[in-house]
Amino acid sequence: MTRPGTMNTMSSQMQDCVEACMSCHSMCEETMSSCMQMGGQAQMQIMRALLDCSETTRMCADMMMRRSPMSTEMCAMCAKACDMCAEACMAMPDDPQMMRCAESCRRCAEMCRTMAGATM
Questions:
Q1: Lowest mean pLDDT among 45-49, 68-72, 95-99, 115-119
Q2: ∠ Cα 64 35 44 (to 5°)
Q3: What is the C-alpha to C-alpha distance for residues 6 and 105, in angstroms, rounded to an integer?
Q4: Considering the entire predicted model, what is its pTM?
Protein backbone atom coordinates (compact mmCIF):
# COMPACT_ATOMS: atom_id res chain seq x y z
CA MET A 1 0.00 0.00 0.00
CA THR A 2 1.42 3.37 -0.95
CA ARG A 3 0.93 6.47 1.10
CA PRO A 4 -0.60 9.52 -0.60
CA GLY A 5 2.09 11.71 -2.01
CA THR A 6 4.72 8.97 -1.90
CA MET A 7 6.80 8.99 -5.06
CA ASN A 8 9.21 6.39 -6.36
CA THR A 9 7.81 3.47 -4.39
CA MET A 10 9.90 0.36 -4.76
CA SER A 11 8.61 -2.16 -7.29
CA SER A 12 7.75 -5.61 -6.01
CA GLN A 13 10.64 -6.95 -8.12
CA MET A 14 13.05 -4.57 -6.37
CA GLN A 15 11.59 -5.44 -2.95
CA ASP A 16 12.10 -9.15 -3.71
CA CYS A 17 15.68 -8.47 -4.75
CA VAL A 18 16.37 -6.48 -1.55
CA GLU A 19 14.95 -9.36 0.50
CA ALA A 20 17.08 -11.90 -1.43
CA CYS A 21 20.18 -9.76 -0.81
CA MET A 22 19.51 -9.47 2.90
CA SER A 23 18.76 -13.17 3.20
CA CYS A 24 21.97 -14.01 1.35
CA HIS A 25 23.92 -11.59 3.55
CA SER A 26 22.65 -13.35 6.69
CA MET A 27 23.35 -16.79 5.25
CA CYS A 28 26.93 -15.81 4.35
CA GLU A 29 27.50 -14.47 7.86
CA GLU A 30 26.21 -17.72 9.41
CA THR A 31 28.34 -19.78 7.03
CA MET A 32 31.46 -17.75 7.87
CA SER A 33 30.91 -18.57 11.52
CA SER A 34 30.63 -22.26 10.64
CA CYS A 35 33.80 -22.04 8.53
CA MET A 36 35.77 -20.42 11.34
CA GLN A 37 34.95 -23.35 13.60
CA MET A 38 36.24 -25.82 10.99
CA GLY A 39 39.53 -24.05 10.34
CA GLY A 40 41.92 -25.23 7.65
CA GLN A 41 43.38 -23.65 4.53
CA ALA A 42 40.55 -24.65 2.19
CA GLN A 43 38.08 -22.76 4.35
CA MET A 44 40.18 -19.59 4.02
CA GLN A 45 39.42 -19.47 0.28
CA ILE A 46 35.74 -20.03 0.94
CA MET A 47 35.73 -17.42 3.69
CA ARG A 48 37.09 -14.79 1.30
CA ALA A 49 34.21 -15.49 -1.09
CA LEU A 50 31.73 -15.44 1.81
CA LEU A 51 33.02 -12.12 3.05
CA ASP A 52 32.92 -10.53 -0.42
CA CYS A 53 29.39 -11.82 -0.95
CA SER A 54 28.19 -10.78 2.48
CA GLU A 55 29.44 -7.22 2.09
CA THR A 56 28.30 -6.89 -1.52
CA THR A 57 24.76 -8.11 -0.85
CA ARG A 58 24.35 -5.73 2.08
CA MET A 59 25.61 -2.79 0.06
CA CYS A 60 23.46 -3.74 -2.92
CA ALA A 61 20.31 -3.87 -0.76
CA ASP A 62 21.17 -0.51 0.80
CA MET A 63 21.70 1.10 -2.60
CA MET A 64 18.41 -0.22 -3.96
CA MET A 65 16.51 0.96 -0.88
CA ARG A 66 17.84 4.48 -1.25
CA ARG A 67 17.35 4.32 -5.03
CA SER A 68 20.97 5.06 -5.81
CA PRO A 69 21.62 5.83 -9.49
CA MET A 70 24.43 3.25 -9.27
CA SER A 71 22.20 0.41 -8.06
CA THR A 72 21.97 -1.19 -11.52
CA GLU A 73 25.76 -1.53 -11.71
CA MET A 74 25.86 -2.67 -8.09
CA CYS A 75 23.29 -5.39 -8.85
CA ALA A 76 25.52 -6.67 -11.66
CA MET A 77 28.54 -6.75 -9.32
CA CYS A 78 26.47 -8.39 -6.60
CA ALA A 79 25.36 -11.14 -8.99
CA LYS A 80 29.00 -11.85 -9.77
CA ALA A 81 29.98 -11.97 -6.08
CA CYS A 82 27.05 -14.30 -5.36
CA ASP A 83 27.99 -16.59 -8.25
CA MET A 84 31.58 -16.79 -7.00
CA CYS A 85 30.44 -17.51 -3.45
CA ALA A 86 28.03 -20.24 -4.58
CA GLU A 87 30.86 -21.84 -6.54
CA ALA A 88 33.19 -21.66 -3.50
CA CYS A 89 30.54 -23.24 -1.25
CA MET A 90 30.07 -26.08 -3.74
CA ALA A 91 33.63 -27.17 -2.91
CA MET A 92 32.13 -28.74 0.22
CA PRO A 93 29.07 -30.61 -1.13
CA ASP A 94 28.73 -32.77 1.99
CA ASP A 95 28.29 -29.75 4.27
CA PRO A 96 24.58 -28.83 4.60
CA GLN A 97 25.37 -25.25 5.69
CA MET A 98 27.52 -24.72 2.58
CA MET A 99 24.76 -26.10 0.35
CA ARG A 100 22.14 -23.80 1.93
CA CYS A 101 24.48 -20.87 1.43
CA ALA A 102 25.15 -21.81 -2.21
CA GLU A 103 21.40 -21.95 -2.86
CA SER A 104 20.82 -18.56 -1.23
CA CYS A 105 23.66 -17.10 -3.30
CA ARG A 106 22.26 -18.56 -6.54
CA ARG A 107 18.81 -17.12 -5.84
CA CYS A 108 20.26 -13.69 -5.04
CA ALA A 109 22.48 -13.75 -8.14
CA GLU A 110 19.50 -14.53 -10.36
CA MET A 111 17.42 -11.70 -8.88
CA CYS A 112 20.30 -9.23 -9.08
CA ARG A 113 20.95 -10.14 -12.73
CA THR A 114 17.30 -9.44 -13.45
CA MET A 115 17.51 -6.07 -11.69
CA ALA A 116 20.68 -5.26 -13.64
CA GLY A 117 18.80 -6.02 -16.86
CA ALA A 118 20.98 -8.98 -17.82
CA THR A 119 18.58 -11.90 -17.61
CA MET A 120 20.38 -15.21 -17.85
A1: 115-119
A2: 85
A3: 32
A4: 0.85
